[in-house]
Specification:
By secondary structure, this protein is an alpha+beta fold. It has three helices and nine strands, in the order E-E-E-E-H-E-E-H-E-E-E-H.
Length: about 140
């Protein structure tokens, strides 16, 4: 788990998101909200592009990014969570908002055997313990 300081929220009121530089990930988290991941160096350019049709807000300071890897990452997410991890629409470039162990999270698959889970910093120890216990065969939530 690590700080997710590179996450910027883009709210766009009447238009699609702007073009972003190569290497920046753009994830639609709500009908008119996108997360730009890795776009910190582009904020001036993006601000000029969106003008008065939206707003940029850095939100990564309050988020932790957990990276789950391995063939079983989808199964791990079913521990204390309830959503369809096998839905074919839940793939690379998409994001799902749900709760795991009563913690609000956003899950973004980044490959067949990898995903990123974004959560509030204050919940990081709780999910770390849950996943550690599950990985070592010590059971699910305590």
């Amino acid at each position: 788990m690590a700080a997710a300081g590179d996450v910027i929220a883009l709210d766009r009121w009447d238009a699609a998101p702007p073009d972003v530089a190569a290497g920046t990930r753009l994830l639609q988290v709500e009908p008119r909200r996108w997360w730009l991941i890795g776009a910190c160096a582009q904020t001036d350019t993006l601000t000029a592009q969106i003008g008065d049709t939206g707003a940029l807000s850095p939100i990564g300071g309050g988020l932790t990014r957990a990276t789950l890897t391995g063939a079983g990452w989808r199964e791990v997410l079913t521990i204390s969570g309830c959503f369809d991890v096998e839905d074919p629409r839940f793939g690379v470039g998409k994001i799902a908002a749900t709760t795991l162990h009563h913690v609000p999270v956003w899950i973004a698959p980044t490959g067949d055997e990898m995903c990123e889970v974004y959560l509030a910093n204050s919940y990081a120890p709780t999910l770390h313990e849950l996943w550690s216990r599950s990985a070592t065969g010590q059971g699910g939530p305590s």
